[in-house]
Amino acid sequence: MNIQLSEHFTYRKLLSFTFPSVVMLVFTSVYGVVDGFFVSNFVGKTSFTAVNFIMPFLMILGSVGFMFGTGDGALIAKTLGEGKEKKARDLFSMIVYVSFACGVFLAVFGILFVRPIASLLGAKGQLLEDCVTYGRIILAALPAYVLQYEFQCLFATAGKPSLGLYVTVAAGVTNMVLDALFVAVFRWGIPGAAGATAISQCVGGVIPLIYFACPNKSLLKIGRTQFLGRELLKACGNGSSELMSNISMSIVSMLYNVQLLKYAGEDGVAAYGVLMYVSMIFLAVFIGYSVGTAPVIGYQYGAKNHGELKSLRKKSLVLIGIFALIMFAGAYLLASPLSKLFVGYDKGLLALTIRGFSIFSFCFLFSGFAIFGSSFFTALNNGLISASIAFLRTLVFQIAAVLILPLFWGVDGIWLSIVAAEVMAVVVTVFFLKGQREKYGY
Question: What's the mean pLDDT in 106-112?
């Protein structure tokens, strides 16, 4: 079904249009989980802990691609809705060049500072060495990773969400096959797992670059452009919520690791790693849907079609609610088997992981609404409100909860803090959605 941004979207069309984005992000999360599976089962608990310990730092550096992708994607969609196709292509080209340059700079920075940062966070001995080894190999591919993140968002804006899915599948299959080969067969350990991921990121970043640089049938193409400083600032400001969300989540993950080291030792960090791997898959459904609908919302906003904008908002909240119930039920029922998949070899760690998983699963009842709310305002080119929702949800509420609740409930308080933060984020999202309804006509 070839669906245009200008069409009226029924529930069926919404699901059809966003399906590639949802599957794309879920698949990206799945092949990240495969990395953890092989490291945990074939290298060992300490190496698995190291991957999870350094991952937030790597995600902070890579999240600039998501900022450019969502921010520029919303601006491009709005520009297309206004009928300015050449300017939209110029914006697209400029953002690709700028984001690649940022990726190179951040890769160099990360390689130089990964050891002192891991040490500052509390890593010592073999844990520290594994963090540095894994981090430096991954960081070598950071420019491609930034482009991969960016193109995941921009394929939908270009009217080619299915193509984005194919590229993600290619990258994911590459990672899975190489993980099995490098870690399980060749027994290369941490360097093998990192190498498999780095190569897959190059696949995910370079293939779209080649596609958009060559003649194609999409709405966008990479070519000669000019530096549009005002639009670049607008795109960065508009995508700041997604950047803030990713950075905040990574900072909070670091804090969770510190708290878990204090309350439960390395087993706590390993258990949290399992929760984060699985939550990446579940949250990818909400993020994928939000990313998929953003170009449609941005286009209709640019075209001043308030009736369709209102319809998109209502239908999306209904679908998010259905997804939330499915995600919660799935997480709660699969807590034990999924935990066994990663840490079944250690009874104490397994029990801790299952307990945390059962509590943590309640967060999926609420998380999708705040994720969509933030993305909705990004699509409306209101970066301030979008960033406010993301900032409160992923940083303020979670930090407050993870520092306070463990004082009363210990390790259980750490798992509960995620749920508490999501509940508070929903309240804030409802406040903004109601408060801005007249301004945007949705």
Answer: 95
Determine contact, residues 402/259, Cβ cutoff 8 Å. Answer: yes
pLDDT for position 2? 64
- φ, ψ for residue 76 (rounded to 5)? -65, -45
Cβ neighbours of residue 110 under 8 Å, at least 6 residues apart? Answer: 57, 58, 61, 135, 139, 142
Entry pTM: 0.72
Backbone angles phi, psi at 261, to 5 degrees: -60, -35
Tell me if 288 sits within 8 A of 22, measured CB to CB.
Answer: yes
HEC profile for 361-413? HHHHHCHHHHHHHHHHHHHCCCHHHHHHHHHHHHHHHHHHHHHHHHHHHCHHH
Report the phi/psi class of residue 272: left, alpha or beta, with left for phi > 0 and alpha for psi in -120 to 50: alpha
What letter would DSSP give residue 219? S
DSSP for 46-94? HHHHHHHHHHHHHHHHHTHHHHHHHHHHHHHHHHHHTT-HHHHHHHHHH
For 21-67, how does the pLDDT look when each residue is reduced to its tens digit (9 = 90+)? 888 788 777 766 787 889 888 988 888 888 888 888 888 888 887 67
Q: What's the rounded Cα separation, in Å, for the pair 400 and 351?
A: 27
Share of the chain above pLDDT 70, in %: 98
- State yes or no: pLDDT of 152 exceeds 90: no
- Of the CA atoms within 13 Å of residue 378, those in its CB half-sphere come to 40
CA distance 39 to 337: 18
Spatial CA neighbour of 81 closest among 309, 300, 348, 387: 300
Q: What is the mean pLDDT of residues 417-426?
A: 95
φ, ψ of residue 69 in degrees (nearest 5):
-65, -50
How many residues make up the chain in this entry?
442
Q: Which of 358, 360, 354, 394 is nearest to 271 (CA)?
A: 354
CA atoms of 442 and 439, how far apart (whole Å): 8
Q: Which of 439, 420, 412 is nearest to 352 (CA)?
A: 412
